[in-house]
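Re: folding output
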Amino acid sequence: MRSLGLIAFFPLSAVAQCLVVGISDGDTLAARCGAPGAYKQVKVRLAAIDAPEKAQPYGQRSRQSLADLCFQQPARLTERDVDRYGRLVADVECRGKDAGQHQVRAGMAWVYTRYAAQHQHLVPLEALAKAGRIGLWAEVGRKVPPVPPWEWRRAKREGREPVDAAL
């Protein structure tokens, strides 16, 4: 596991106390961590979930859902890894709620099973959202099912139109 060294700010703990200062999309935020005068701003990817891309159906709603929970709020970040883009991958807690669980439960993100080995508790939350037709699952059975972001990104890279782009 690579590390961004946030723990240097909090040497006695694996948890960093930060302030959320930006929301990029439904699974990525910017946080300011550290002591006053020695802040470090980090880009944070929520562990084990994948939210719709901004241009995808529900992309903006997913971003707003995360913003409603976390923007300008204190957050507890538990570092898990650093991704290939240099973002901290972390469990994030805002307002006493796990942000990843919140997004999946609200139907605003998928469980990213490829990276969810330590987050199996999210799988039943996705199943409940899907069964309840909550969020991005609202149209399942009535229209084309939503395309997971990882498939949507692959289609875009390959120059194909993602299936759900017209929804």
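--- second protein (sequence, then structure) ---
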Amino acid sequence: MLGAYDVPCFIADFSRIVGLSLSGRCAIASVDSVAGTCGMGNLRVAPDSRLAASKWGARVDNSGVKTQPTGSRRIDRRTIVKGAAWSIPVIAASAASPAFAASTQCPTPTLPWDVAITGGCQIDFWGAGQALPGFTVTSAGTKDANGCCLNVAPDSPLTITETAQGVWHIDIPDIGGLLYAAWTVAPLGGIALAAPFEAWAFAYAAALVAALIIPSQLAGYGPYLSAQNWVKPTSIGQFLGFSVTPQKVGSGFSQVLRVNVTFSFSRQLTVNGMPSCSQTGWGYLGGVVTPSPSDFLGPLTSIPLFGAAISSAAGTFTPDLTLTASGAWTDANPGNNIASIGNQILAPGACQ
């Protein structure tokens, strides 16, 4: 028998927003639908400030659905409260209706479990009608006519590895191949060019990883999900992979030195206690703002004779950033345990 329970509705924390008054309520209308939203009013954006959000709870019992909004609250700009944007759909997908639960006993689940990862523009459940880039984890299942989930739940915590991969290149005019030779041919030696290019590439790659931190914190994480946040690398050895390689492209007056950069960096997430016929997830609120390449030219300007030309070429590239979430488990369908999202989704405003 399903007793009374609280259905929390969370609003994630922002930075750079001040003077936000929050009011609203969340309510579960039935086993398969959600009614109500978390309202957001009196929004004024200002630089260099912070916002915290309050919670609303909806209390559901066997007699029906009730809501208990806690009212409006003026936000202290110095306070930050973390939240999750995924709570409402999880409750809607996994909770039985009170009237049904009072009279029906579900059979013991026997069907195998299947947990899938999907990526894309996920629904923002704040009631703002906005989507955000991110990943959804679905513990799939089949329900009988009474709404009982017939699939067993995973019997142990599930580990997800999220990997960020960055790729970019720059082309530098190299008539006669002098720069390529200075990098690759002895006795000129590769150190004169390799070292500053490696320092430049590392600085930008580390900044690109750091750009993931704030939007992932703002979007929050769903129930059953815990995560290490992204951490800005402080050395090349902390990357899973990192390479800076020269390539000769073209010939004669059109010849260029192409510098190719690739890196990968990861973090771990854990799903624990997630029932079948439910969902959770995480996202990147507002998208990922990639750093400006022109802010990282310092190591290249020190290259003798060619520093100005190299810096000009290195100040205009656009990185290709891809996030891949991969589950380390074996279930009924191992083929759906991985998903990726890229620049076209991660860019600010792409999911609106």
